[in-house]
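Workshop exercise sheet. Pairs work together: one partner reads the sequence aloud, the other fills in the structure field after running the prediction. Swap roles for the next sheet.
Pair: D.N. / O.F.
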Amino acid sequence: MIHAELRIPADIQETLYLCVTQAEEWAGYLLCGMLATDERLVLLGREWCPIPERLRIRGTGAGMTWHPDFDVEMLNRAQQEQLGCVVVHHHSGPSPTPSQIDWNTCDSLLPFLSREVPERPHAFVVMGDRAAVGRVYRKGEYLADLSVTEIAGSALVSWPTRARPLKLIMDSDLRHDRLARGFGSQAVARLKAARVGVVGCGGGGSHVIQQLAYLGVGTLVIADADRVEVSNLNRLIGAVPGRRHRSLLDRAFRLGLGDVGRPKTEVMQRLVNQVAETAAVLAYRESFPSAATVAALRQCDVIVSCVDHLQVRDDLNRLCRRYLIPLIDIGLEIVPGGETSGTVAAISGRVTKVQPDGPCLRCQGVVDDAKLEAERGGRPPGYAGDPRLPDPAVVTLNGAIASIATTEVLQVITGFAGDNSPNCGWLYDGLTGTVEKVAKPFRACQECQRERAAGDV
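Structure field:
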């Protein structure tokens, strides 16, 4: 059975609601990309197209009626751009109840639309104030009822098919009692239901993975192709050196060898299992964007990027825009002082957020074509020193940045900060110990316009 969902960026949802909640009933088409697996189908809101006033037909006595020319216009767009059509209107109240006229319209219009663009799903949705009801069609046939609508902004807000009171959820073993006391029992439930991706299992990524396990995240998707090296042991959380003195029993059973040479994903999976044995870990000993990592990460609720290379950041930026997944990208640079001074000239860290309704990494200047070209020439821009030498790295500074990033994951999943969460993240100065929030207006770059909610192609 297919689990059908609708995911809409918060800015598009705001525009849509201003249109459909007028005093006089109104409607329109939400053109959508899609994410499809064998068991899950997500319609990804890409563009809201309200029915123009000139095409509205009044006086029919059948609720809201519009000229079929608008259906043809939307169908042509859907065919040309390979998008799904979601017809949306609004019924006031917490729990929308479609009328018989609504269902008659749905059952006559949706088979037609879905036959004309059979590669994409289409839907008819009635929205209430905090809930949404709908039917999804594909290839001319009813496919599924809409199970949930998700509004994706600074936090992921789920609208059920019917408004229901929050239920108190108790953790019987009291494991997350202190978290529930501060953020509520629903936060514990949302974390348990969440699927979080972490790309890069190095110094910063290992901190993030450990903290996500302690928070009680239900499913972790981790990806890294590297193995543990001796130089990683000063900062890779969970990695241990081999014992200097090993007994005959140790040698016989290959104990005490340590983690040098072991895949980083294997070490991280062991770390998570030690902290939270019920958590599911999907570990990929591959570099993103391999086919397997793309398939797994596109189903995440939020992704944390803990990588060194700008090209990987750019690829993650594109993936998250396509599937409306919040992305949290971390970076840290330590600039040494003079060779004999023993001081550090600068410690600059950042936690950059890419919200579905906000600017992407390219909009924010983290990635651009010139920087990517410079990276292809040898060294990622922003790294100091000789390209043949490794960059400075300290466990405490990695931990500071990782903690800010993981707290942003907590915000995305639970929405605890409300409107106080900055849309672009945080800047960290390690010399002064200060953190400054970053907020920028969303002026969509070409990447945003091309990729946002495009989904599967």
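Discussion prompt: The CA atoms of residues 74 and 83 lie 10 Å apart. What would you look at next?
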